[in-house]
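step=encode ok
step=design start
structure_in=
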């Protein structure tokens, strides 16, 4: 149990890291094996692929050779030429891939001359076929020797052996890869389960070893925070931080109990208590020591002050009683003065209202006078306009009479014209009668002219009658217009006289209104002054009432202060010094 909490937690993390390292190393080795196996599998697949490609180009070369032999066309040799170009490259790749396998290297060394021999046989047949004389037969005979078939069978056998070797290696490596994957899976699964179980046990042990005493200390701390100092902290011989924390809580609880006992004795008015701080850094103990010393000094000073307060309160009580009596008499006198000022204020208010009423009436009369003056001036202007219009009407009537005379002359001319037309129609009728049958049309025209002349004569007579009526009416209008002009002229003169009288009346009313306004303003100022005096007296009355109330309160406070001094004296006597 001498390990610290940090050591225990660090040990737990070290065990966890160790388990992770072991699992990681095993997994890494297994994964590396898998990667190597996968690389070798890919290597075998590359060898098989190149071998298949080698056989394919050999077959393409034979196919191209046969086509050329049969047809003699050079284009059939394209697969053969491509095979020659790829042959060395493929052999180089296969030789590089199998350089770590001795058996395969021997096989590739045996395969190389066979391939060269096969290409030589193919070239021999092609050269024979190119001979224009008997080339086909020569080529056939070379092919019939089966030399190329034997070489090709040897190539296929070696390639088959190499493929069998690589397929065997491929199966072996696949089995190794499967086994390695299973081992990796088992290592990870069982290693994780073991690590989880082991670390769970270690973590539970460390947590239980730390959390249980911390929970006990937390319970005690919550009770101490709630003011309950009755709980006991069980100490043990642990050497870690929890053990030191437990012993510190035990010492703190004891110190708090001592301070609580000191506080209870002080609350019981016992200042003889002795406070001993734990050290110079004991803030609570030093504070209690200072508080007790200050309470002792303050209590002694307070006792002296209470004695002085008791004697001073008696003197203040007597003086306050005298002041209260004088304040009551002052309040009565001020109340009477305030009533008198209020009566004066009401009188001034009535006078101001009357003056205001007179001023308002004068203002209204002035306004009415001004309105009448304006109306008369408007009437004068209207009469003048009427006079002007009457003169214009008279001129128009005169002109109308002159035009009527002109119309009469025109009517006389028209009448003469009708007479002449009538005579002309008679003459035309006579001439038509003389003409006989040929003048009948002209007789009709003469008759129509005669009718028109009769109608014109009748119309002229009617117009003359109407014109006579118009001339009579015009004469009457001229006389009436002259009389209207004279009447309008007299109305204008009378309106001017009335306007002058109203103007003088308006000036008098305006002067009266100004005087009434000045009287109302003077009364208003007197009313404002009276209100100010009344307000001042009211303020004085309120101040006196407040002074009286304050004096009474001071008297009550003096009584209370006197009683307080006596109570404080008794309380101070309870403290034991």
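sequence_out=
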């Amino acid at each position: 149990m001498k390990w610290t909490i940090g050591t225990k937690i660090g040990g737990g993390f070290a065990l966890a890291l160790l388990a992770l390292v072991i699992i990681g190393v095993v997994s890494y080795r297994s994964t590396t094996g898998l990667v190597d196996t996968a690389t070798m599998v890919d290597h075998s697949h590359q060898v098989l692929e190149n071998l298949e490609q080698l056989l394919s180009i050999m077959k393409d070369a034979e196919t191209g050779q046969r086509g050329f032999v049969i047809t003699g066309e050079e284009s059939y040799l394209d697969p053969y030429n491509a095979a020659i170009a790829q042959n060395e490259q493929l052999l180089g790749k296969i030789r590089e891939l199998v350089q770590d396998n001795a058996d395969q290297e021997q096989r590739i060394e045996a395969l190389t001359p066979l391939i060269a021999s096969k290409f030589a046989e193919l070239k021999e047949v092609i050269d024979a076929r190119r001979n224009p004389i008997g080339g086909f037969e020569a080529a056939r005979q070379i092919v019939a020797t089966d030399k190329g078939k034997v070489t090709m069978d040897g190539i296929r056998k070696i390639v088959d052996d190499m493929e069998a070797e690589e397929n065997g290696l491929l199966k072996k490596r696949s089995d190794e890869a499967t086994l390695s994957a299973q081992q990796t899976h088992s290592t990870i699964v069982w290693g994780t389960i073991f690590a989880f179980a082991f670390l769970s046990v270690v973590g539970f042990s460390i947590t239980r070893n730390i959390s249980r005493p911390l929970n006990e200390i937390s319970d005690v701390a919550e009770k101490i925070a709630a003011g309950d100092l009755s709980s006991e902290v069980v100490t043990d011989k642990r050497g870690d931080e929890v053990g030191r924390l437990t012993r510190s809580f035990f010492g703190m609880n004891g110190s708090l109990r001592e301070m609580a006992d000191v506080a209870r004795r002080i609350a019981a008015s016992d200042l003889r208590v002795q406070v001993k701080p734990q050290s110079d850094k004991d803030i609570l103990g030093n504070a209690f020591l200072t508080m007790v010393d200050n309470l002792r000094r303050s209590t002694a000073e307070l006792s002296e002050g209470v004695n002085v307060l008791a004697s001073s309160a008696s003197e203040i009580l007597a003086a306050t009683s005298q002041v209260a009596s004088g304040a009551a008499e002052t309040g009565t006198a001020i109340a009477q003065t305030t009533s008198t000022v209020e009566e004066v204020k009401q009188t001034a208010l009535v006078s101001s209202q009357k003056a205001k009423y007179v001023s308002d009436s004068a203002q209204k009369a002035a306004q009415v006078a001004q309105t009448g003056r304006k109306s008369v001036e408007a009437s004068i202007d209207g009469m003048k306009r009427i006079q002007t219009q009457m003169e214009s009407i008279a001129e128009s009537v005169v002109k109308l009479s002159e035009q009527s005379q002109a119309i009469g002359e025109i009517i006389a001319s028209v009448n003469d014209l009708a007479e002449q037309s009538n005579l002309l129609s008679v003459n035309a009728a006579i001439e038509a009668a003389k003409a006989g049958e040929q003048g009948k049309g002209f007789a009709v025209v003469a008759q129509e002219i005669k009718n028109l002349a009769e109608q014109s004569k009748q119309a002229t007579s009617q117009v003359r009658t109407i014109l006579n009526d118009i001339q009579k009416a015009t004469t009457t209008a001229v006389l009436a217009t002259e009389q209207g002009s004279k009447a309008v002229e007299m109305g204008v003169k009378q309106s001017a006289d009335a306007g002058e009288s109203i103007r003088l009346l308006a000036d008098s009313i305006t002067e009266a209104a100004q005087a009434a306004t000045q009287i109302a303003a003077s009364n208003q100022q007197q009313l404002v002054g009276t209100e100010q005096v009344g307000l001042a007296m009211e303020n004085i009355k309120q101040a006196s009432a407040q002074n009286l109330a304050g004096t009474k309160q001071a008297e009550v406070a003096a009584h209370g202060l006197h009683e307080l001094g006596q109570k404080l004296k008794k309380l101070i006597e309870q403290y034991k010094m």
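step=design ok
step=annotate ok -> The chain has three domains: 5-216, 246-300, 301-574.
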